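Protein in question kept in full:
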Amino acid sequence: MKAAKEAVKAFNIKGAVDEIALFGSGHINDTYRIRVGGDEYLLQRLNENVFTNAHYIEHNLDHLLRQKSSLFVDHFKTDGGAYHYRNESGLWRLTLFLADAYSPQTADSLAEVAAAAEGFGSFTAFTDTCQVDQFHEVIPRFHDLEWRLTQLDQALKSDLFGRCNEVRDFSSKVINNRAISNKMKALKADGLPVRLCHNDTKLNNSLLAKSDASFQKVIDLDTVGPGSVLYDFGDLMRTTVSNAAENESDTSKIQFRPEFFETLKENFLKTASPVLKNLEIEHLFFGGQYMTYMMAVRFLTDYINGDIYFKTTFQKENLVRAQNQMTLLEKMNAYEREIS
């Protein structure tokens, strides 16, 4: 990994690189754990097929980190004062690795959910002081469900990989939930605020302490930009209320856990409520439905298009993910009816 070693040196890390190893399970970027002497770092190579406006990430990161918050891990700069370095192998970024922290892949305890919720709630409160119009939307229309449904329609029409017959019934089931998009449009018309958001608040984008599962850091800041708190709470909700991983193929194992949702909401509001409007608080649960449905649409679209966006580790994984998310959405809807 000559290019990776070169990138590490560009961030003024002194000493020989002793070890480079692939790290994590992210869908998009390539991440490496780096050891230099007694210190450890995370080196990421951005997927520029996804992040076609990588200069926006640099701009947003600079504006966010100049606010000096303990919410974020240390990011290193090059001699030129940039958070990213380019060589022939791509665009790289270096952060400190926290050996005493972990990134939970599934919510195994209420303590983990409470900690992550407080952390992301603190992020929401912190970014309320930032001027959202100074930040770029890194991926245009990233959480625009109407656009994602249009992409699905186009994929079904083109059928580039001959997969549409296989998913015909399932895709109809997905499309029949379009009313979720209409509800979000109505909320925006009613004044749902645009605020600075993380926009990718999966549970594993938080770091918790190995010792007691307390919140440590918010990570993966590539998508920070304009959005809605319903996106951030919603993505965290969809990755914590279920007891199954996103790629679990046995849908009978996917459950909605009410106690996990209540813990999530209570602890998120503990830190975020001072800056939220009533309209936002009243529709946090809908945020979970919205994000879960949108991910089902995106996974299905990617499967039909030949798995070109999300990394996969086994055949039909994106279809499994889509079916998983639709099952979770049905469980959310059932819980909503139960408490109504």
About this structure: Strands lie at 17-22, 30-36, 39-45, 85-87, 90-96, 101-102, 195-197, 206-209, 215-218, 225-227.
